[in-house]
Here is the input.
Amino acid sequence: MSLPSYNRQIRDANLRGTCYLPAAGETANSTPYIDFGPGTWRPEEMEIEVALPAMTNRTSASYTITATLQDSADNITFANTNPLIQCGVIGVVATGSPATTFRFRPPANIRQFVQMEFSVPAGDADNTGAQVYVQGLL
Here is the structure.
């Protein structure tokens, strides 16, 4: 369950990361880390936006691309946040997956370095050319 959006709109280029989706069934890809600085921001005053492009070749509703928020204190060892925050995009039979944007508030206990990890299940369409975006909104 995500919290309601409070229409955060300030986009800082330093709080943005992009990556391409991995091949179906392969190791997950992650965005480069976003450094929120040690104690310089408050999670309740920001949102994280995740944007995936339209993927017309995803015409099976049996597969879901999953985006998972991860954090790290040392920028080396990343782990799923607690509580777990995940977003999923299901294929659509006739048209493929539409462009999809998720917004959520990070957990209050989130650590300094943040990334989104994207996984594509085995058997899904080839979306390795699909670039995904993550943006911190202040």
